[in-house]
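W.,

You were right to be curious about this one. When I first looked at the sequence I had no strong expectations either way, so I just let the prediction run and decided to look at it fresh. Below is the sequence, 265 residues in total, followed by the output.
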Amino acid sequence: WENHVKPLWGERAIATIQPSEVQAWLSTMTVRGFRKGEEIQVPASAAMVRKAHAVLAQILDMAVVDGKLKSNPARGVKLPKKAKPVKVFLTPAQLRTLADECSTKGEIVWLLGTVGLRWGELAGLQVGDVDFLRGRITVRRNAVTVSNRVVVGTPKSHEARVVGVPRFVVEMLEPLTRGKAKGDWLWERECGGPMVLPSKGSFFHEAVRRVCDDDPEFPAVTLHGLRHVAAGLMVRSGANVKVVQRQLGHASAAMPLDTYAELFE
């Protein structure tokens, strides 16, 4: 809204907006970039264009509901296709190498890479969510980073779910709970509250950089990509599609089948 929608459409009378104008806006959208140290404008990614379009289109949808517009000029325009995400799968040995390379918080790499939590689900974990005896974690919250602040809400599915955790990973989490109450965050920022999404220069990105420098064949995995790593390890160990679905928090078994079809026999 602030960067892409408001500057052009914020003061515009909605009845004057034409579909051709919306199409032109989407086709020429740019973002700030840098080349040789100089700031330049570069074409926005397909994901950014689609996100900005969704903001405008949803506002105009409400105008249609309120009877202020007969039809939504932002609907029916041509949107760029999102690039298919590249799935990276690591072996257990590679996952160990990456976790060991982290200067701090190596247990986060193990948890994401074996259980398949989203970052927001991990950041939203509290001490009382971990059942050390059963080796289970109850996912109750999603702590999303928005402009360097964290907004805590419900999980993406809007339902709590219980996931299994390898015993050795559970044991890594135990020291983090010492001296804490059940309502305390498992990982907490110095200023309090859940952790923000790690940016460039963080413990994770620097670990990936060092590992890739040492081994050019090592896949450049992202934090979200560790979900794919976890799914791959589950399938390799014999987990059926329903187990993978419940672990990853997908709405149905169709999604993991579509996403990881090549991993199943």
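Here's what jumped out at me. The chain has a mean pLDDT of 92. And, maybe more interesting for your project: The beta strands are 30-35, 38-43, 130-131, 136-139, 142-146, 149-153, 161-164.

Coffee later to discuss?

I.
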